[in-house]
Amino acid sequence: MNDIVYQHEVIVPDRGLPFKLFLFEGGGGKYIREKHWHRSIEIFAVRQGQLEFFLNEKKYVLAAGDFVLVNSNEVHAIHAPLPNETIVLQIPLAVFADYYTEEQFIWFSHSGKEDDRQVFSLLETMFVAYGEKQTGYELKMLSCFYQLEYLLVTRYRKFEVGEEILKNNKQLKRLGRITGYLKEHYTEDVSLEKLAGIFGYSPAYLSRMFQKYAKINYKEYLSSVRLEHAVRDLEETDLAIGEIALNHGFPNSKAFSNLFRKRYGMLPNQYRKTVTSEKERFSSHYLPHKGSRLFLM
């Protein structure tokens, strides 16, 4: 499985490359990743199956050949009730530093259908090259990536954005510092009151910040951070379920199991038995798709 975490994500590019490319971890279906955000630009391109994508309180159903582009600090959620094969490309915001506005900001929107098809084709080529890893594949991927970056800044970049978008972006930057602290201390008893005191806010104000700008309440957010770290131990270790729960801040195994079942549709021990490696999924079914549509944020 990949290393995406359900929180304010820190994107670590693949070694030697200015981006991160992988298959979406919900490929087996019955998977939910609730509201989260990150500084990076993110593209989800569906090769097979179907995804339900939630962006700015709107739902988009993505079928094979569709993709969605997520801007920096844009709150989004993904539901995968059915099996799918979805390419995910994450691009650190700093890649676009030369194209920032005066507010140190860049925003992407929609372009024409021909550009959509070209973007999907580039992602498909990068995906296949990464899976096959033939001699020089890194150069091929970089070539496609720079073409993609060119399309984004020349065809998809939006110069006029509303005040509400700018305000939300600034607030999520502030929240990013707070969630960064939570990433380091999530195993502790970090109450809303304690966190608010550390950052100089009242508990009520901090609670409103989470709800208004991250679209999730503080308690749910902290639980989700704990869950993602616990899931990694579930996948990568032989530790008992109860031990994993306690190691990651849950009061007991029941609390962990209840939250896990809500998100994954199964109990932790069932998940452990059925989980398959991303490498196995990545090495099969390189089937191209001719058409594509972009759903806008």
TrEMBL record:
InterPro entries linked to this entry: AraC-bd, Homeodomain-like_sf, HTH-like, HTH_AraC, HTH_AraC-typ_CS, RmlC-like_jellyroll, Tscrpt_reg_AraC-type_HTH
Source organism superkingdom: Bacteria
UniProt key word Membrane: no
Keywords from the named record: DNA-binding, Transcription, Transcription regulation
SMART domains in alphabetical order: HTH_ARAC
GO molecular function terms attached to this record: DNA-binding transcription factor activity; sequence-specific DNA binding
SUPFAM superfamilies in alphabetical order: Homeodomain-like (SSF46689), Regulatory protein AraC (SSF51215)
Domain HTH araC/xylS-type: 176-274
Name by which UniProt lists this protein: AraC family transcriptional regulator
Native species: Roseburia hominis (strain DSM 16839 / JCM 17582 / NCIMB 14029 / A2-183)
